[in-house]
Specification:
Blueprint: E1 3-11, E2 21-23, E3 40-47, E4 53-70, E5 73-89, E6 94-96, H1 100-113, E7 120-126, H2 128-138, E8 143-154, E9 157-163, H3 171-179, E10 181-191, E11 194-201, E12 206-208, H4 214-228, E13 232-239
Antiparallel strand pairs: 1-6, 1-7, 1-12, 2-3, 3-4, 4-5, 5-6, 7-13, 8-9, 8-10, 10-11, 11-12
Amino acid sequence: MPRGFNWYRVDDFPAFSVGQKVDTGGQLEFKDYSSRGAHSRVKFLGASEHDSFKEYFVEHETERSIKHRFDKDIREKLIQIAEFYIFEHKDGYFLVDTNYKNLRELVARLQATWPEKLLQFRTRSIDLAGLRNDVERKAGTTEISGGYFRNLMINRVSAASIFGPDVGESELWDEFSAKGQLTGVWLNFEFYGEPTSIMVTRHGGIVTFQSFGEKTLLELLEAINAYIEPFSKETALSAVRRRG
């Protein structure tokens, strides 16, 4: 099953003690807040199975506008709960298996919980064309096996994926690159002697397709992140100091 990890940084991220549970409503323990709106709970698990990472578990609530029925009542909104893990690398970046909407909400709630801090949320973009050119130039064991293109203006086609041997050197790739936007690149390589594939997105996400244990998965993510880092550019999305 594919599993995607988004990359981000947060300046001045608060320090947690091992086992600490933080509710972004301002409480330091789990309780039942039946009348409260969406909030988040974060638990610091300590060291992960990989020496380079620390690990957090998050229960994140987010409001969604969906018409639904609860018992006999018809309602327009609900609170959805997402569960995900955050892996904090020793170099200061985070890898998390959820979307950026959840991440930005979580950072904003942490900011409200620690108003004395300035939590600046940073994402990144990847020069996928540069990454592709580097892979083709080195002609090593890593190969381009596919690409995803959007905003195409080709016979009313707005998006397309292409795959195949040496697809990164194909004329079709060049045509799609010229007439659209490259938003994802698939890489094939060997990892511990086994054929492995991952996708890198233009927003710096890494999608894995094989099932790995935590230690091996984090080793793979760390290696891929180091490989694509020269092609990345960071962007600060928010920097708001809140005083309570």
